Amino acid sequence: MFGIGFGEGAVLVVLAVIIFGPDQLPKVAAQAGRALRQLRTMANSAKQDLQDGLGPEFADFDIADLNPRRFVTKHLLEDLDELDVQEPVRDEPLLPYGERPPYDPEAT
């Protein structure tokens, strides 16, 4: 979720035990959990307030669509999946290594 591997997580746990001590670590973890829960509640509340403020016209609006990666995926790349795009068929083989392509004076 946060891009932290097992080794990095173990280092963070060891540092937390060293910094806060084994007796204070449960209290700090509980405070961090409460802060994270409050932050999540505030974010959900702000999201709900925004959706309520937009009115019924935007009832199907998803705030996550404002993420640029998701916006591009939804509006540009999903259309490509619907198209039946096929690779072009080559009648002629590719040139062997070192062979020069034919010269067309009318094309230049």
TrEMBL record:
The keyword Repressor does not apply. Its main location: membrane. The keyword Protein biosynthesis does not apply. Pfam families: TatA_B_E. It comes from the Bacteria. Coiled coil: none annotated. Residues 87-108 are annotated as: Disordered. It is found in: Membrane. It is a single-pass membrane protein. Gene3D superfamilies: 1.20.5.3310. InterPro entries: TatA/B/E. Keywords: Membrane, Protein transport, Translocation, Transmembrane, Transmembrane helix, Transport. NCBIfam families: PRK01371.1-4. This is Translocase.
